[in-house]
Amino acid sequence: MFLPGRPVMPGGAGSAEFASMRAAGASPLARRLLALDGVRSAFFGADFVTVTKDPGVAWPVLRPEVFEVVADFFASGEPVLTPTADGEGGGGGGGGAGPADTAILDTDSEVVAMIKELIETRVKPAVAEDGGNIVFCGFDEATGVVALELQGACSTCSSSSVTLKHGVENMLRHYVPEVKGVEEVKGEATEAVERESDKALSAMEKKLADAGILRS
């Protein structure tokens, strides 16, 4: 997690995730980070930046490059997000999500409103401390399952399933009896990292098999 010492998102609120150059069209900073060899995705929180790396890249090598890009960008005074073709700034389709995902609508049931309130006031601040975000994707009233997407550092953390099940799920079930469980919705960045991890694992298994070390 990189802390530039000033607000990252406009107004110091919300978040945005970028998993491709196309998605990063509205963010000069995201484009520069994604241009670094080994950076898989970039995530911006209210006052922090996190990046997800390719499995085969070592952090000690990549971290100084990311730090330099972040430091130089904020020293330049450029805006993190710029207006898109339709005149609006935003995440460029890369999974950006601010307070909008937990904004309580007139059409929301009392249960959904309570779930959104808990996620906004209790869950998001906690995961932001670790460089991540959790986005509310929906609630199935028939099954009682809350759909959530993990972003930033949380999306590739080995303990993310524990966070969802023993942290978020237990808290929601305690305050909202209608909630029976939570399930993770995979975002574009998470799926991309998992695909690369599978490729790296398959390549390693092939090498071991060719060397006679791994046998099926």
Report on the structure:
The strands form 2 sheets. Strands 1-2-3 form a 3-stranded antiparallel β-sheet, sandwiched between helices. Strands 4-5-6 form a 3-stranded mixed β-sheet. The protein is of the alpha+beta class and 216 residues long. It has 5 helices and 6 strands. Helix content is 38%, strand content 16%. Helix 4 links the parallel strand 5 and strand 6. Residues 85-89 and 91-98 have low confidence and may be disordered. The chain has 2 domains: 1-96, Scaffold protein Nfu/NifU, N-terminal domain (Ribosomal Protein S8, Chain: A, domain 1, 2-Layer Sandwich), CATH 3.30.1370; 99-185, Fe-S cluster assembly (FSCA) (GMP Synthetase, Chain A, domain 3, 2-Layer Sandwich), CATH 3.30.300. The radius of gyration is 19 Å and the shape is globular. The chain has helices at residues 28-34, 59-76, 110-128, 160-175, 188-210; strands spanning 16-18, 39-44, 49-53, 132-140, 145-152, 181-184.
